[in-house]
């Protein structure tokens, strides 16, 4: 599950939530594939049921996650993709089966792009 929280208030507000399926078949093959070592990728160009189309997860000391989505399914349900410029501080959390949970916080100084017209948010997480 991918969740985005607005942390400008003492009690964080859930802005966005979308599921990234744990298995399944996409374009005739598995949606998830090992990319070697501690890296795994997910690809479903159809946008799945909630609009997430691609993920790349890397475990270890330099852990990272990149999630991409597009289409109407990002916005046609509860906790849709927010339209205005995203607020900071912001927390993005990725959780999964077996107790997996990864998160990072984004502060205003780490934002590289926050474009509501193109729907793009890029930032470096706070340590």
**Which overall shape is indicated by the principal axes computed on the Cα atoms?**
globular
Question: How far apart lie the N and C ends?
Answer: 22 Å
Number of helices: 0
**% residues in beta strands:** over 45%
Into which percent range does the helicity of residues fall?
A: under 10%
Structural class: mainly beta
What is the helix/strand order?
EEEEEEEEEEEE
Rg (CA only): 15 Å
Provide the domain count.
Answer: 1
Main sheet characteristics: 4 strands, antiparallel
Strand order of the largest sheet: 2-1-9-10
Mean pLDDT across residues: 88
Low-confidence stretches: none
Number of strands: 12
Describe the structure.
The protein has a 4-stranded antiparallel sheet with strand order 2-1-9-10, with no helix packed on it. It has a 4-stranded antiparallel sheet with strand order 5-6-7-8, with no helix packed on it. A hairpin with a 6-residue loop joins strand 1 (2-6) and strand 2. Helix content is 0%, strand content 46%. With 127 residues, it is mainly beta. The chain has strands spanning 2-6, 13-18, 25-26, 29-30, 32-36, 39-43, 52-58, 64-69, 90-95, 101-106, 111-115, 120-123. The chain has one domain. It has no helices and 12 strands.
Summarize the structure.
The chain has strands spanning 2-6, 13-18, 25-26, 29-30, 32-36, 39-43, 52-58, 64-69, 90-95, 101-106, 111-115, 120-123.
Defining key terms:
mainly beta; 127 residues; four-stranded antiparallel sheet
